Amino acid sequence: MSLDQNLNKILIIDFGSQFTQLIARRVRELGVFSEIVSHKKIKLIDINHSIKGIVLSGGPLNVYQINKYSFDKKILQVDVPVLGICFGHQILSKLSGGRVKQSKHREFGVANVYKKNNSLLTTNFFGNKKFKQVWMSHADQVSKLPKNFKVVASSTNSKFAIVENKIKKYYGVQFHPEVTHTENGKKLISNFIFLICKIKRNWSSKDQKNQLINDVRKQVGNNKVICALSGGVDSSVVAQLLNKAIGKKLYCIFVNTGLLRKNEEIQVVQTFKKRLKINLIYVNAEKEFLKKLKNVSDPEKKRKIIGNLFIKIFERYAKKIKNVKFLAQGTLYPDLIESKSVTGSQTSKIKSHHNVGGLPKKMNLKLVEPLKFLFKDEVRKLGLELNLSKEIISRHPFPGPGLAIRIPGIITNEKIKILKEADYYFIQNLKNNGLYHKIWQAYAALLPVKTVGVMGDNRTYEYLCLLRAITSEDGMTADYYEFKKSFMQSISNKIVNSIRGINRVVYDVTSKPPSTIELE
What we know:
Blueprint: E1 9-14, H1 20-29, E2 33-38, E3 51-56, E4 82-85, H2 87-95, E5 99-115, E6 131-144, E7 150-155, E8 162-165, E9 170-173, H3 185-196, H4 205-220, E10 224-229, H5 233-246, E11 250-256, H6 264-275, E12 280-284, H7 286-292, H8 299-318, E13 324-328, H9 333-339, H10 354-357, E14 366-368, H11 376-385, H12 390-393, H13 413-432, E15 441-455, E16 458-471, E17 479-480, H14 485-498, E18 502-507
Parallel strand pairs: 1-2, 1-3, 3-4, 4-9, 10-11, 10-13, 11-12, 13-14, 16-18
Antiparallel strand pairs: 5-6, 5-7, 7-8, 8-9, 15-16, 16-17
C-alpha cells in the first residue's frame, strides 16, 4: 500500500512469522497506521521521520543461525522505540550484547507470565493480578540479558518473558501479544504505541477509503479495468471501490462457475447491474467448469483448474473490450500470508488460494488488488464507508473455488445440486434463529462417503453431509460454534427429510489450528 511519507506510523520488520500481519491489524485497530517490510529489504536509509516506532516480528529462524537471516543492525541505533516479539525479542537481546540458546523446555501454547517489575509497556496489563495468560510459541530463549536491561515479567520456562531497556526504549516479549489467546495483549501494543512511541491516532476507515481510491487512480490512470466479481464481500467491496475511483472505466465480469451458492447469480445481477448501475457482463460457464473438473479429485488441482479457467474466461471477454489493461481481484491479507510470504520472509505455505495460486504466468492483464493488506473485518468497515448494503457486507466468507472445495473427491452435477440445497437450508436456519451474525463462517459440505440408513421401511444408501460453523476475529485462528442440541436436531431433520441424496448429518468440532476452515 502506498502511503504519504509524512503519515506517522509503526514499522513492522517481518522475520517470517505467520502472525506478522496480526501485529499490523492490532496497530490499525488502535487507529495508527503500520507498514510491514521484510528483514531482507529494510535498510537504515529507509528509516525516516514518519517512523515513530519499530516492531521486530517473530519467525521460524534461530538467532544463532546468522547465515539464515539478514538484518541491518544499524537500524537499532536510530532513536525510536523498539518492541521485539518472540524471535524479535531474541534478536534484540542478542544484538544488544545478550545471549540466546535453545530452551531446555519448549513453550508452545498457553502459559502464565508473572509480574516482577513495573514498566510503561505493562501499564494496566496485569490489572489486579500478579500474572496474565499469554500465548507462547518458541524453542529458543534469552539466557543472559544485555547491559542496562531489566526483567519485567517471567514465566515458568522463560525467565526473561518481558524485558526492557528504559534508556534506549528497547522492549522485548517472548510471547505473542498480537494473538487473541494472549489475555489483554492488545493493551501491551497500545502502551507501546501511545505511551512509549507517543503517536496520536491517525487512521480510520474513512482515511483508508480515500487512500485506497487515490492508490487505484494512481495505478490505473485512464485505463479500463475488469473486476473479478463473485458477489462475495471481498469482490463486492473491490467493485464498489473501483466504481468510486474510476466510474464507467470499470467493467465487472461475473462468471457463474456453477459452484456458487443457491440463487447467488440472481442476487449478484440484481445488486450490481440494477441497483449500483455498474457495467456488468454476466457469463454462464457452468458446463465449462464442470467439464474441466471431471474426474479430478486432488484439491490443489481443483484450485489450479478453477483459477486458470477463471482467468482464461476473463481474457476471453477482455478482448471484446478495447484497451483493458487491469484485472481487479478481492485478494485479502490472510490469502497472501497462507499462500506465500507477503514480504519475502521465510514462512511456510499452507495452501494455494484462488486469488493468488491460480494465476497463469503469462497473464495478459496487470493485477489491481486494493484489499491485499486488509483483513476481513477491515473490508467490511470499508464496504460500509462505500455505502454498500449491510446484507452484502455481513455475508459469511465464501472461497474462490466455491463449492468445489466443499465436495472432497470427484465433483458431479448431482453432488452440486444436493450440496446447494443442504447449504441453503443450513444458512436459512441460522438466519431464522438469529445465529448467522454470531458466526464467522458456516457451510455444508458433501463428503465422498455413502452410508446405510432407514427411511420408513426402506433401506437407503446416500451421502453424508458435514456441517461446519466457526467463530473467529480474522480467519487466522478459529473455534467451532457450540449449537444447542435442539438446533442441531432440527437442522439435521430438515436436511435429511428435505433432500434426496443425504441420509446422515455430522458436525465438525475441530478448531483452526490444527484444521483449516475449509475442507480442501
